[in-house]
Amino acid sequence: MMKKFRVKVEIRLKDGILDAEGRTIERAIKRFGIEAENTRKGKIIEFTTVGDNKEEVVEKIKRLANELLINPLTEQYILEVKGEEA
Amino acid sequence: MMKKFRVKVEIRLKDGILDAEGRTIERAIKRFGIEAENTRKGKIIEFTTVGDNKEEVVEKIKRLANELLINPLTEQYILEVKGEEA
Q: What's residue B22's pLDDT?
């Protein structure tokens, strides 16, 4: 029987990649009067999907992340998959 | 003595607000062959700051979030503050 899972993909630029948007945000935080360094801007994509079990869902979402959601040259991701109550 | 803290702000649209970007992503996930519903796109802003203690940092970042980082009419946020090793 198919179960529902809530998927969360956190997408960040790789460590060596210049984060231009992060720098702009950092300047704004400093202008606000708060100390900030190493500021990074990332993305969250969340959705509900179905699958037989968590392992199968993780495998297909890894493929989705690498082929559709991220740019593997510049970005990396962290994946969280949780079963939803029926 | 001032300590360093790593701040993570997760920003999402409020539940009732239409997430146009989320819908576009959802269509792409489905075209990829994976079931998706209730797809939401959010943002992560992370930076290192300084403060006397965690409580003081949380208070000032709450102010920063509401006045600078989010649009309180349409967005909500989750805040995570962790002490960094010296």
A: 97
Contact in structure between A61 and A79 (CB atoms under 8 Å): yes
CB contact under 8 A, B10 and A44: yes
**ipTM score for this prediction:** 0.91
- Tokens representing residue A18 in the block: 């210049």
CATH topology of domain A3-83: Mth169; Chain: A , (3.30.1280)
Q: What is the pLDDT of residues A11-37, one digit of tens each?
A: 999 999 999 999 999 999 999 999 999
Q: Do B36 and A46 lie within an 8 Å CB cutoff?
A: no
Q: Which of A34, A35, A44 sits opposite B43 (nearest CB)?
A: A44
Chain A residues within an 8 Å CB radius of B57? none
CA–CA separation, A29 and B38 (whole Å)? 32
* Domain range list for chain A: 3-83
